[in-house]
Design a protein that fits this description.
Length: 257
């Protein structure tokens, strides 16, 4: 009987946190047959794959494209593989006033951050087995409404809520879901996010590395935690969001802007 391949799937793998997941998993996992790297930029995926030891499959696709996700589902069916880990790292944000950013760009944020993540999770789950894991990239922005980052923060609140619910739903099947909620991470994310407005200076002071974010996330996943908040500062922010009135915190954010 032919042995089924064990694979890991990473979306948003061409840069930033997704790329860092690929690199850390490549050195840490010995029982994986293939790592599937998904992103829109073929050249960047090829750059990542060139420095990896594992066999990789490069899938150039937009997670919001209906035809591309249909092809992805067929590929999973044809491969006969077992998905041991799905990492949904595709996503982007834009800083700026709600009425000053274009409607199209803000709806695209929802498509990528919410709809794309949901669809990739739904399509992949039937190919998972007991002991498989899902890592969803949420954000510390999910803890509190974010003026001037409104749609992004709302989209990440969705990711956090969905992930925690799925963690409960899938536990009886031995599938574990972890939501990762970092604050600012030092990646290319801000090259896109700051197209129209700059990130507040105080956030740059608490920025962490992609290496720490990913290592904390992988550790939390294997401890079967439903949520991980990398970095002491963001852990403190989460505590503040739990115990202080949100209106007070929003006023403080406005003052610090």
């Amino acid at each position: 009987m032919k042995k089924r391949k064990n694979i890991i799937i990473i979306t948003g793998a061409s840069s930033g946190i997704g790329q860092e997941f690929a690199l850390q998993i490549d050195t840490a996992f010995s029982n994986i047959d293939e790592i599937w790297l998904i992103a829109r930029r073929k050249e960047r995926l090829e750059e990542v794959a060139r420095v990896m030891e594992h066999t990789t499959r490069l899938i150039v696709m937009d997670v919001t494209d209906e035809y591309a996700t249909d092809d992805f589902e067929k590929l999973l069916e044809q491969s006969g593989a077992v998905v041991r880990m799905l990492i949904n790292a595709a996503g982007f944000g834009l800083i700026g006033d709600f009425m000053e950013l274009s409607l199209e760009e803000q709806l695209e944020m929802l498509l990528v951050n919410c709809e794309g993540l949901t669809k990739m999770t739904y399509l992949t789950l039937p190919f998972m087995a007991k002991g498989s894991r899902i890592i969803q990239l949420a954000s510390g922005a999910a803890f509190l409404p974010q003026p001037n980052f409104a749609v992004y923060a709302a989209s990440k609140s969705y990711v956090l809520s969905l992930s925690r619910a799925l963690c409960r739903e899938l536990a009886p099947y031995g599938i574990y879901v972890t939501a990762v909620c970092p604050g600012p991470v030092n990646t290319e994310f801000f090259a896109t996010a700051e197209q129209y407005a700059d990130m507040p200076a105080y956030k740059k002071l608490v920025m962490i590395s992609a290496e720490k974010c990913v290592s904390d996330a992988l550790r939390a996943s294997y401890r079967r935690k439903s949520m991980i908040v990398p970095g002491f500062v963001m852990k403190s922010f989460l505590a503040a969001c739990k115990y202080l009135p949100h209106e007070f915190l929003l006023q403080m954010k406005t003052f610090l802007k």
